[in-house]
Amino acid sequence: MTIKETTNLIINEFNQFDDWMDKYNYLIEMGRSVPLIDDTQKTDANLITGCQSRVWLSSEYKDGLIYFTADSDAVITKGIAYLLIRVFSGHTPVEIVEAETTFLDLIGLKEHLSPTRSNGLLSMVKQIKLYAFAYQVKEKNS
Amino acid sequence: MSEISEEKIQSVRNDFPILSRTIYGKPLVYFDNAATTQKPNIVIDAISNYYRNDNANVHRGVHYLSQQATGAFEDVRKKVATFVNACNPNEIIFTRGATEAINLVACSYCEPFLNAGDEIIISVLEHHSNIVPWQVACERKGAFLKVIPITPEGDLDIIVFEELLNDRTKMVAVSHISNTLGTINPVAEIVEMAHKKGVPVFVDGAQGLSHGPVDVQELDCDFYAFSAHKMYGPMGIGGLYGKTSWLEKMQPYQLGGEMIDRVTFEKTTYNEIPYKFEAGTPNVADVMGFGAAIDYLNELGWDFIMAQENDLLSYATAQLQAVEGVKIIGTAQNKAAIISFLIEGIHFFDAGTIMDHLGIAVRTGSHCTQPLMDILGINGTLRASMAFYNTRQEVDKLVEAIHRVKTLFA
Q1: What CATH fold (topology level) applies to the domain B44-298?
Q2: Which of B91, B209, B306, B355 could join B360 via S-S bond, C-beta 3.0 to 4.6 A?
Q3: In this complex, do A75 and B354 lie within 8 Å of one another by their Cβ atoms?
Q4: Which of B350, B366, B408 minimises the CB distance to A74?
């Protein structure tokens, strides 16, 4: 599935909910199913600090594709981290670098990406892009 | 039941237009007053009226409007001086807020009076803005920062404070009220102890001036900093009270127009206090708003404000304590209406996010007191900070929201 296809799927999933509480319930459920980062990877180097919640993000580059795992101390943050991983994990560096992240706006979670919300998610998106960019450069040079 | 009638509270609430708005379709419950208080109509009108009718730059203007603005501006200085019972209006310096007042003293006092090997005492309870300016001053001068610890309840450990005081101590800088735990610090006692050693005391009154009367002469503190926006006034204005004897010995903090006496290319001499510390065009409109806020508080009276806030504090404390899994962080005997708490097993960010959707504005996180969080061994708290316009019914809504959060994250 392409990044675009996954984001459309997520938008459809969220469009089922009229009530914000159902939306958060779904997010909390997803928070509990995030592909958790290996405890050995829960290092300071992989820690993205926000002053609200903390996010750990790890990446692995295999056969031209990047795979992400993550964790957070807050469940809602973890749920959104899971959405980001569903969208970006298993894609090529180029696909990730060029992808748009506007889908969070479309599912009514935009506030979680605002720079002042400081829950680490905006930094997580930046970090995902940064990993992709780094692998892209590495690939070009190899 | 509270001794204050619901009609009285409702009439006070009507003074604050924002309190009748809804958030996500639900009535706003505003419990973030320690971050900023809401503004009554009288304050909003004062600012708008100033720009509509009275706007002119203050001081040295020969024309009518300028003189009128100058008069009104200086009247507010007098009003602030009376409000905190300063000896003299010249002891009131307008700043952008408490943070700028702290920076002013940390620069202007430390430059001439702090030397290598000296010490500045702060406390564990301090907001970052009453830590960083002193820390940087110490780094610049090769001085040391000493920290008063707290008891498990959240009171300052005065015995340790006494031990920390010595002849190398050049300043004691403490908050009047902790923005995170609500502890009201024994400032008068701290001042007395410090003065015995000849050490001046700076009080960060950002939270202090909105919950009860402050008499700087009675406290005998050397400096007292405040922010208008935490006392129902506008953002971007506040001030510093400083004893004349210190202010006259201190160097200007910022340089420019207004603060000078005579300028030549060879040498500049400075204006007298308070103008020496007020470089540039001041924030006149917000000073007008600040004046209106003080009028409003005077009109309302501390008796009402304190009775209502004490009622809310004891009611909310009892209600929160009754919820299984809720732990109040900071249980000092002498507390303002600021309650930090945690819900067992639930991250404060998760809880705060859900509460937001229920129309309840609480603050979550470290509340700009990261060192305090480190000592408490937590990453943050939920904080409900109340004001006299809050009600017991709103506290009930908070408790209801906690139950919903518990169900959701169970």
Answers
A1: Aspartate Aminotransferase; domain 2 (3.40.640)
A2: B355
A3: no
A4: B350
